[in-house]
């Protein structure tokens, strides 16, 4: 809550500063041009805020979670698109109103005669393309790597848009203080991306020198990979978090896959457990011991850091048991574990859960059967955990199962702040 409030406060403060410099510059043009300049400023400010949301800064990520930050980034991105489209329309029609040119020829004239306008047109074109491929209908049809490659052109658009604004923006042309402020805003946003997305991962991987130490099949389609390295006791990873793993083989080095830690970090070894759901995860079974690993992270707010009650309920579905198993290892206080699978054969790591539950005095319930009827409906959850409203609830599993359980918890009256979950959601 503190981190979220802080982000809103930062955005609100910058909106106030932008408005101050906007009004200080005065209004020497018609209404359409004034609106165009204002939407351009807000569009650019939101773009800088958008970069901050996906900078993967540890302080924000551990308190908010990559899934929520990515969701905010997505909706902020569409706001940026509409703001910059409005900027282009208002400016073009505003100048056309003051001249004898039609809007199309007015835009061509501006691009040919005004410094930076052509760069702005190119930047807007890039942002439109990125907006289209980020829409759900397109995103579902693109491989993550393809979408990510296209998304990288955002940084080209950022540079073009920034140089355009500083060159011709009325608020900046008339005030050195405004130019200094705007440069600082973009310096912080781009600096955060550079540190969080490049410097910190490179530093950690150079320091820890990660390698595969063992590959252990857990079932026909599930495998655990053990990773070791130097000074892992100084890697700030916690149970419930995940990494973006790159296994540096000839055919897979370019793929990054998000896998949770399936055991609490012990300072010597990291373990991930994955189900074969695609080529990348299926290839883990054939990974050779000694393979170099490049891991980005740890990421995620799905940790005991956010506990509000001394007792907990851990609810897992399918391979979503991996962070749940790690959390059980780390949790203190009485815990109830509910593991939802279709059949007993699907209960990955169940033997480890039994041993951990016995050692920690936790209750363990294996719930089997088809998805319908819902076996984690409110009545069943209340039967398994009569005092569920007095416990923290940690939830991980397939999206349909998670949505159903969240609905059940809502019906049972479990306070929202006691329900902890995280979805894997990556942003470029």
UniProtKB/TrEMBL annotation:
Name of the molecule in the record: Oxidoreductase
Membrane-spanning segments: 7-28, 34-54, 75-96, 116-138, 150-168, 180-200
Organism: Streptomyces curacoi
Record-level GO cellular component terms: membrane
Membrane topology: Multi-pass membrane protein
Alphabetized CDD domains for the sequence: FNR_like_3
Record keywords: 2Fe-2S, FAD, Flavoprotein, Iron, Iron-sulfur, Membrane, Metal-binding, Oxidoreductase, Transmembrane, Transmembrane helix
PROSITE patterns documented for this protein: FAD_FR
Domain FAD-binding FR-type: from-to ranges: 205-305
């Amino acid at each position: 809550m503190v981190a979220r409030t802080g982000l809103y406060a930062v955005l609100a403060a910058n909106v106030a500063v932008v408005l101050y410099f906007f009004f200080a510059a005065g209004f020497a043009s018609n209404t359409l041009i004034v609106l165009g300049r204002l939407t351009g400023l807000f569009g650019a400010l939101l773009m800088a805020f958008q970069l901050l949301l996906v900078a993967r800064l540890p302080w924000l990520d551990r308190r908010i979670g990559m899934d929520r930050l990515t969701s905010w980034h997505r909706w902020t991105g569409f706001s940026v698109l509409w703001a910059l489209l409005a900027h282009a329309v208002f400016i073009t029609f505003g100048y056309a109103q003051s001249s004898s040119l039609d809007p199309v020829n007015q835009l061509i004239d501006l691009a040919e005669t005004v410094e930076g306008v052509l760069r702005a047109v190119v930047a807007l074109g890039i942002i439109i393309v990125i907006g289209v491929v980020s829409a759900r209908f397109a995103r579902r049809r693109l491989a993550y790597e393809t979408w990510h490659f296209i998304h990288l052109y955002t940084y080209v658009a950022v540079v073009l848009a920034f140089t355009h604004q500083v060159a011709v923006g009325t608020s900046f042309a008339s005030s050195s203080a405004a130019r200094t402020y705007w440069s600082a805003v973009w310096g912080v946003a781009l600096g955060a991306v550079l540190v969080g997305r490049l410097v910190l991962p490179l530093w950690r991987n150079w320091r820890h020198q990660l390698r595969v130490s063992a590959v252990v099949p857990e079932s026909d389609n599930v495998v655990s990979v053990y990773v070791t390295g130097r000074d892992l006791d100084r890697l700030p990873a916690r149970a419930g978090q995940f990494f973006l793993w790159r296994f540096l083989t000839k055919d897979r080095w370019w793929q990054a896959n998000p896998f949770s830690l399936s055991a609490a970090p012990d300072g010597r070894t990291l373990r991930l457990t994955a189900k074969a759901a695609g080529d990348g995860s299926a290839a883990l079974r054939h990974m050779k011991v000694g393979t170099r690993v490049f891991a980005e992270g740890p990421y995620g707010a799905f940790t005991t850091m956010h506990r509000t009650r001394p007792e907990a309920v851990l609810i897992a579905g399918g391979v979503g048991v991996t962070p749940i198993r790690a959390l059980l290892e780390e949790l203190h206080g009485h815990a109830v574990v509910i593991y939802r699978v279709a059949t007993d054969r699907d209960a990955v790591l169940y033997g480890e859960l039994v041993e951990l539950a016995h050692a920690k005095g936790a209750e363990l319930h294996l719930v089997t059967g088809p998805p319908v009827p819902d076996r984690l409906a409110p009545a069943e959850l209340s039967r398994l955990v009569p005092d569920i409203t007095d416990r923290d609830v940690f939830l991980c599993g397939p999206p349909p199962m998670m949505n159903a359980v969240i609905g059940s918890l809502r019906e049972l009256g479990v306070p929202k702040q006691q329900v902890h979950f995280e979805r894997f959601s990556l942003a470029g």
